[in-house]
UniProtKB/TrEMBL annotation:
Belongs to the glycosyl hydrolase 4 family. It comes from Solirubrobacter pauli. This is 6-phospho-beta-glucosidase. Its cofactor is NAD(+). One of its GO terms (molecular function) is metal ion binding. GO terms for biological process: carbohydrate metabolic process. The record marks E106 as: Increases basicity of active site Tyr. The active site is at D166, Y245.
């Protein structure tokens, strides 16, 4: 099996490579290729990978390239996690709307739209390259905004694109831990779009509903991230457990004030990552130790703006070996070995959410086998959730069309339709601000 990692110099690549080391024999993996436009970043990460392999005592050779065709040719699986515009772009994504009193988080609100406008054309090129040189390959997409990127690339590769996000599965594991249950023995009734989903119930093997009891227990809610973020009163009003990113919708003004007081996470990561990649050296154990220390600092700030807005102190609940790399390995294992495992993934709706069309990419439980993910019907959902999902799906599709056409009119329309943008004039100001500060956006949307 040939597996290619696009974005081979990315900071989280060692997580994926470590998971591959653990599953090398089961997956029949014999070739790993790292592709990146920046060879120096791949060199830095390569030393970390050497350290991992030595530590585990497993040999899984990899090679690096800056030639996309060479990287994907005849690949069985292509993992992709890229950041077009690097972290400098993320800082601008967040800062421009914030200057107008509007939330600009990485994947939510105007920030997510601008990120998608830059990213979708690049991902479309990748999908076209795969169609030409790896027509039987699977694209496993980690690139944010994951829902929009998955839907845009499915227009080219169809159901051979699977979107991965570890946020829903992470929430489900935390809920299971509070309940004292094995997550694999529970059914999580989750539905939505990427970074816009809700857990409407949890059931055990008897079919008994379990979520209502958890939502009634304030002490239990205080023991995990989502319970602390949203608080018992609001969760009992919703009668569901929202994905953590919905905090930015339910408490947008609070989050804007918190970011203004403490700075955005993008600014923190920009400085941290600059320092990490500048410390290049050939000593593999030292590179691995440096990466682990940097990762801990990185992960503890995840969702920091939301926690600050909620008045929480402390760090993000860090889980070892349970992030998107585990989700990706589970998908590959399910396809290669036809395990029919149930995973929450981003894929075409078919009929999972009856108020959306069959090609709309949704984030729902799927049964995954040799033919890929098959979404499970969700059934009835609350009207407020269906309404927000429908609105955001329109925003996503307008953004995709804007990115592929270079239409300023569509880009402004996408911003104006977003629930977090207060007016059409504000949408125009935000787009103009992005275009002034992002040369690649100015070029793509030249008048």
């Amino acid at each position: 099996m040939k597996l290619t990692i696009v974005g081979g110099g990315g900071f989280r690549v060692p997580l994926v490579y470590g998971a591959l080391l653990d599953r090398k024999e089961r997956l029949g993996l014999d070739e790993v290729v790292l592709y990146d436009v920046d060879d120096s970043r791949q060199d830095r990460i390569g030393h970390v990978l050497d350290g991992l392999a030595a530590e585990k005592g497993v040999q899984l050779p990899f090679r690096t390239t800056t030639d996309l065709v060479d990287a994907v040719r005849d690949a069985d699986f292509v993992f992709c996690a890229i950041r077009v515009g690097q972290l400098e772009g993320r800082v601008i994504d967040e800062d421009v709307p914030l200057g107008m009193g509007v939330l600009g988080q990485e994947t939510t609100g105007p920030g997510g739209i601008c990120f998608a406008l830059r990213t979708i054309p690049v991902m479309t090129k990748l999908a076209e390259t795969m169609a030409a040189h790896a027509p039987n390959g699977w694209l496993i997409n980690f690139t944010n905004p994951a829902g929009m990127v998955t839907e845009a690339t499915q227009r080219i590769l169809g159901d051979k694109v699977v979107g991965i996000c570890d946020s829903p599965s992470g929430m489900c594991r935390r809920v299971a831990a509070i309940m004292g249950r094995d997550p694999k023995a529970l059914w999580f009734d989750y539905f939505g779009l990427n970074h816009l989903g809700w857990l409407k119930d949890v059931r055990d093997g008897t079919g008994a509903p379990l979520l209502e009891e958890l939502l009634a227990d304030d002490a239990a809610l205080e023991r995990f991230e989502e319970g602390r973020l949203f608080g018992g009163d609001w969760l009992r009003s919703l009668e569901m457990l929202p994905n953590e990113y919905l905090y930015y919708f339910y408490y947008a003004a609070d989050t804007v004030n918190a970011i203004r007081g403490g700075g955005s996470r993008g600014s923190f990561l920009l400085q941290q990552q600059r320092e990490f990649y500048a410390r290049n050296g050939a000593d593999a154990p030292a590179a691995l130790a440096d990466w682990r220390a940097t990762r801990h600092d990185r992960e503890r700030t995840y969702m920091a703006e939301a926690r600050a807005a909620a008045g929480q102190e402390g760090e993000h609940d860090i889980e070892e070996n349970s992030g998107y790399e585990s989700e990706a390995m589970a998908v590959v294992d399910a396809i290669v070995n036809n395990t029919r495992e149930v995973l929450i993934l981003n894929t075409a709706n078919r009929s999972a959410l009856p108020f959306l069309d069959e090609r709309a990419v949704v984030e729902v439980p799927c049964i995954v086998g040799r033919s890929g993910p098959v979404p499970v019907a969700v059934g009835e959902v609350p009207a407020h959730a269906a309404s927000l999902i429908s609105t955001m799906k329109d925003v996503e599709r307008t953004t995709i069309d804007a990115a592929l056409s270079g239409s300023e009119q569509l880009a402004i329309k996408a911003l104006a339709l977003h629930p977090l943008v207060p007016s059409v004039n504000t949408a125009r100001e935000i787009f103009d601000g992005y275009r002034r500060r992002l040369p690649e956006l100015a070029e793509a949307f030249a008048a």
